[in-house]
Amino acid sequence: MAVAGISLLENIQTPALLVTNAQVSFANGAAKSLLGAHIVGQDVRIAIRNPDAVAVIMGEGGGTAQVNHLSVGGSVWTIVCAVLDSGERLISLYDRSQQVSVARAHADFVANASHELRTPLATILGYVETLLDPRAGDDPPTRERFLKTIQHEAQRMQALVSDLMSLSRIEAIKHEVPSHEIDMVAVVREVVGEVRDNGAVTVSSNVDVAEILGDRGQMAQVVRNLIDNALKYGKAGGPVAVSIEATERGWLSISVRDEGDGIAPEHLPRLTERFYRADNSRSRAAGGTGLGLSIVKHIVERHRGRFDITSRPGAGTTASMMLPLRP
What distance in Å separates the CA atoms of residue 41 and residue 1, rounded to the nearest whole number? Predict the structure, then answer.
């Protein structure tokens, strides 16, 4: 390959190799970082220890192969081989890990959503079939019990569909920075006033007004989700403490703390994943959809904030967010 071509390859970010007579005659900086500087001069079958990749590289006309677990680790790569007029082979490596991860996450999301909907639907259909039996229809207490179960499962499906739609809307506008001026002290107090068990919820603030640039409906949804979670999974009957603190550095901290059983450390990093539950049976019994904290995280990030959960078993849980105050 000409000197100009070598210079061009050296300055691109894509890992690239030249193979001459089955040996690596050149590797740019990106390839050396990926595979190690020692590969120059090596037999390509040793430099890239993957049968699928080697088959493409050594083949007659070159080609393309997707390679899992290249010698550098667990990434997924696409290797493209082009045969040059000189007979040399130009190898380019493209990291596909992110695309594969996104595709896997999408597939997992669809599977989980289908499972979450199928479970209450199966219960509803089963009870409806039983009610259609004339013998069940002649037993008012049984009929009433079955109808209440059907109502409960239908409401569970309704909540799940509502959260799925909410998450979809949030993701569709996640790159649009909100621009409306809203007072978070007023939003928090308004949401607390709507809560059925608001006697268990206390609010403290070091400011009377705390304005941010945001979406009022979404921020109310965040506060509502966090308070609902604290009431569901905290100590029966409360207390739940909501704290608002404006800092001198231009940030607003809002935290919601309960005095429940707490959460084991291994669950904390995954709590904002869709459908992840630290306690499946307890969450479903409380009516949780498994999407609430994922929605919270997406909304807070859209507002250029940070969301965090701290907890210790037996010592309660604190969910907190940091939001930039309006300049």
Answer: 16
Structural domains of the chain, with CATH: 3-95 (3.30.450.20), 104-172 (1.10.287.130), 180-324 (3.30.565.10)
Where does the pLDDT of residue 320 fall: very low under 50, low under 70, confident under 90, or very high at 90 and above? very high
> Which pLDDT tens digit goes with each residue over 19-50?
888 888 888 888 888 888 888 888 888 887 77
The helix (H) or strand (E) run that includes residue 20 is strand 16-20
Please tell me the distance from the alpha carbon of residue 181 to that of residue 16, in angstroms, as a whole number.
Answer: 50
Measure the CA–CA gap between 299 and 292, rounded to whole angstroms.
11
Taking alpha carbons only, the member of 161, 322, 300 closest to residue 250 is 322
pTM of the model: 0.60
Task: Single out the residue of 88, 72, 321 nearest to residue 188, CA to CA.
Answer: 321
Q: What is the DSSP string of 219-282?
A: HHHHHHHHHHHHHHHSSTT--EEEEEEE-TTSEEEEEEEE-SS---GGGGGGTTSTT--SSHHH
User: What pLDDT score does 65 carry?
Assistant: 53
In tens, the pLDDT along 78-104 reads 888 888 878 888 888 887 777 766 666
Beta bridge partners of 201: 240
Residue 88 is given by DSSP the state: -
Sheet holding 251-258, edge to edge: 201-205, 240-246, 251-258, 317-324, 306-311
Cα 158 from Cα 117, distance rounded (Å): 9
Which of the 8 DSSP states describes residue 195? -
